[in-house]
Specification:
two-stranded antiparallel ribbon, disordered N terminus, disordered C terminus, 303 residues, 3-stranded antiparallel beta sheet, mainly alpha
Length: 303
């Protein structure tokens, strides 16, 4: 037995990552059913590269989400532990907010990629061409419902209407227009609970940063993202259940398509491990001669 099989569960750090196949138990089986007759190596490789994106992106979603949970908890705990931290409202410093905002962006990006990674499964399972993004697939399905008849079509359109489009708008804001997260604030509630304010704009359809509204009704970043992760997981699991042929036997793991060849007889390629201390040292070395040197005396990635 491979001793690495369950290593993802062995430490707290590893428990922050849930592989996509564990989040969607039928995914392995569906992947094999979409490749039953492909014998030619290059065609099979292209298909595997298409299908591997969904579990990868789902893993990225949960990894980023759990990192955000951990970073937010540590940030709030340390801020409230400071002298005077239990009294009043505290606006966090920009670099403290940014650590959480980076991860908000990462969750949004991974969710959007996971949305788009659903479409190859629809295309291959129903032998249709719905495009390469969920947005395009929805446009096609709204014009011609016969391309994906039955519950699968209804699931995709319902998800897009209730979750997907709004999520896409947040991701587009983050990607193209603004820092989508608000400033961050901590305080203690009246019943003694640690609290945090980190919100998204409530009008993500607006692309002009000056017109975004960070006010009531508040969209608290972490609860919103958590709900969106659950909504996407629900969609993917239900789609797998509808697309799979349950009369066929289960199969083993899909395997991995190498992005580059391993050539026997040639020395393996790679680079030495880089540490955080090496990176900071070289930052300091490179900026030493600048007219207005940057102060890197505080390591912003360490709590």
């Amino acid at each position: 037995m491979d001793s690495r099989k369950n290593s993802w569960l062995e430490t707290p750090a590893q428990r922050r990552y849930w592989p996509g196949h564990r989040l969607v138990p039928l995914l392995d089986r569906l992947q094999f059913q979409l490749l039953p007759d492909i014998q030619e190596n290059e065609r099979r490789r292209r298909a595997i590269l298409d299908l591997e994106q969904l579990p990868y992106c789902l893993g990225a979603v949960t990894y980023s989400l759990l990192e955000l949970v951990s970073t937010q908890n540590i940030t709030v705990t340390l801020d409230l532990a400071n002298p005077g931290g239990q009294s009043g409202l505290h606006v966090l410093r920009p670099y403290e907010r940014d650590r959480m905002a980076f991860l908000v962006d990462s969750v949004l990006e991974s969710l959007r990629r996971a949305q788009n990674a659903v479409t190859p499964y629809l295309n291959r399972a129903r032998r249709v061409s719905l495009g390469t993004s969920m947005r395009k697939a929805v446009e096609v399905l709204e014009k011609d419902s016969s391309l994906l008849a039955g519950p699968a079509r209804d699931l995709v359109l319902e998800y897009w209407r209730e979750h997907g489009l709004r999520l896409k708008r947040y991701r587009d804001l983050s990607q193209h227009h603004t820092i989508v997260s608000s400033d961050a604030r901590t305080f203690v509630s009246g019943d003694g609970r640690p609290m945090i304010y980190l919100v998204l704009p409530n009008n993500p359809e607006e692309k002009r940063p000056s017109l975004l509204r960070y006010e009531e009704p508040f969209v608290h970043a972490l609860p919103y993202l958590y709900d969106e992760v659950l909504a996407l997981l629900r969609l993917v699991n239900l789609l797998c259940d509808h697309l799979i042929d349950k009369s066929l036997p289960s199969r083993a793991s899909l395997g991995q398509a190498l992005k580059g060849p391993i050539v026997l007889g040639q020395a393996p390629q790679g680079h030495p491990i880089i540490t955080a201390d090496m990176v900071i040292h070289n930052f300091k070395k490179r900026i030493r001669g600048l007219p207005d040197p940057i102060d890197l005396s505080i390591h912003p990635t360490r709590y």
